[in-house]
Amino acid sequence: MTTPTKTYKYYWEDFPVGKVREFGGITITAEEIIDFARKFDPQPFHLSEEGGRNSLFGGLCASGWHTCALAMRMMCDEYLLETASLGSPGLENIRWLKPVRPGDTLRVRSVVIEARPMESKPHVGLVLVRWEVLNQNNEEVAQMEGYGMYRRRNPGPAKDSEA
Predict the structure, then answer these.
(1) Count of structural domains within the chain
(2) Is residue 121 part of a domain?
(3) pLDDT tens profile 43-53
């Protein structure tokens, strides 16, 4: 008996170099910043306004990891859960450029930088994407680059070594 193959909305072929997506719109609260910090990044400037005032940030600000997690949530909601994703080997770069404050509304702009098939695995394509996290003032607060692996609609023949 064969298992039916799921049909996805997006495959590797739907991520051509230069493709830009803009999406999201999550407004972060002080309570969410503090809750995340208590669980995962309990530095004083993430835990209270006073702790933030006594730091270089001058007030309460979100953990960079919280900002990345919010970006991931927006990616899932926008397209990732509808893709033939095979996961990711990781991020190449993460930069936290400006503090994220209570009341900020974040969105994401993604740009496909590279897309290539894996020669050793003809059913898989690699996509390198830069994600820019922007606040309500269109200021870039964070940036990440990383590869995603996606099933291909039309895989080519296998080769002996990966490209």
Answers:
(1) 1
(2) yes
(3) 999 999 999 99
Backbone angles phi, psi at 93, to 5 degrees: -145, 140
Cβ–Cβ < 8 Å for 150, 86? yes
| 140 contacts 97 by C-beta, under 8 angstroms | yes
Bridge-based pairing of strands 20-27 and 105-117 is antiparallel
Residue 125 domain flag: yes
Q: What tokens does 67 get?
A: 């900002």
- Is the confidence at residue 122, as pLDDT, over 80? yes
| Domain span holding position 119 | 12-27+62-151
Task: Confirm whether 122 is domain-assigned.
Answer: yes
- What is the structure's pLDDT at 2? 45
Can you give the pLDDT at residue 158?
64
Q: Quickly state the pLDDT bin for 145 (edges 50, 70, 90).
A: very high
Nearest CA-CA partner of 24 in 74, 73, 88, 90? 74
Q: What CATH number does residue 109 fall under?
A: 3.10.129.10
Tokens, residue 33: 């910043």
Q: Tell me if 50 is assigned to some domain.
A: no
State the DSSP code for 57. Answer: T
Residue 20 CA, distance from chain mean position: 14
39-60 mean pLDDT: 98
Q: 58, 52 in Cβ contact below 8 A? A: yes
